[in-house]
């Protein structure tokens, strides 16, 4: 299964300490073993940069880069127009960084691993609360609602498994050979 990890949960996972919940910790360990795909919002990278520079966390971007190079099960998700447009509907998470992270999970229609009580209370995402999976109101806007041609779900899901460096190299009309 695919999940999105928020900044605090990722930092605590990389440090190997701190409360993130038993189920979230188990999912991240299973991802390290190749059993799940973990999406990391580009906002999380920005927050890690800021928190490291302000000396509030001991890890830095090199730690995240190491994680990305050690496992194909972690993916960076860019903040693009679709995610920002989705954030416009997230009305119960006031802090901008968290709102964009919630919007990313909502747009991808995947649960979020977080210990943040505001994010957990959001009706826009699926979270784990008290070691129980809590399904909330998820309404993923289709690509067509954003004025683009809708892509088949299997193609979108497959594209999320392609390294973003390759996706960005593709141009309209280019094709990717899938074997």
Explain this structure:
The protein has 9 helices and 6 strands. It is α/β, with parallel strands linked by helices. The protein has one domain (2-141): 5'-nuclease (Rossmann fold), CATH 3.40.50.1010. The protein has a 4-stranded parallel sheet with strand order 3-2-1-4. Strands 5-6 form a two-stranded antiparallel sheet.
Question: SSE layout and pairings?
Answer:
Elements: E1 2-5, H1 7-15, H2 22-32, E2 37-41, H3 42-53, H4 61-70, E3 74-77, H5 81-87, H6 96-108, E4 112-113, H7 117-121, E5 127-129, E6 132-134, H8 153-159, H9 164-169
Parallel strand pairs: 1-2, 1-4, 2-3
Antiparallel strand pairs: 5-6
Helix pairs in contact: 5-6
In short:
By secondary structure, the protein is of the alpha/beta class. The chain is built from nine helices and six strands. A hairpin with a 2-residue loop joins strand 5 and strand 6 (132-134).
List key phrases describing it.
about 180 residues, two-stranded antiparallel sheet, Rossmann fold, 4-stranded parallel beta sheet, alpha/beta
What number is the mean pLDDT? 79
Alpha-carbon distance between the two ends: 22 Å
Count of alpha and pi helical runs: 9
Helix content: 40-55%
CATH topology: Rossmann fold
């Amino acid at each position: 299964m695919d999940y999105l990890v928020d900044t605090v949960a990722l930092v605590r996972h990389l440090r190997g300490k701190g409360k993130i919940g038993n189920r979230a910790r188990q999912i991240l360990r299973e991802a390290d073993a190749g059993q799940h795909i973990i999406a990391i919002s580009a906002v999380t990278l920005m927050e890690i940069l800021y928190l490291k520079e302000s000396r509030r966390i001991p890890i830095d971007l090199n730690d995240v880069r190491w994680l990305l190079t050690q496992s194909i099960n972690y993916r960076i998700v860019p903040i693009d127009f679709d995610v920002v447009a989705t954030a416009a509907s997230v009305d119960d998470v006031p802090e901008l960084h968290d709102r964009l992270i919630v919007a990313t999970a909502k747009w991808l229609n995947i649960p979020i691993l977080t210990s943040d009580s505001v994010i957990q209370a959001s009706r826009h995402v699926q979270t784990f609360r008290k070691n129980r999976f809590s399904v909330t109101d998820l309404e993923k806007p289709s690509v067509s609602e954003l004025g683009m041609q809708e892509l088949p779900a299997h193609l979108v899901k497959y594209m999320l498994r392609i390294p973003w460096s390759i996706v960005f190299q593709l141009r309209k009309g280019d094709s990717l050979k899938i074997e």
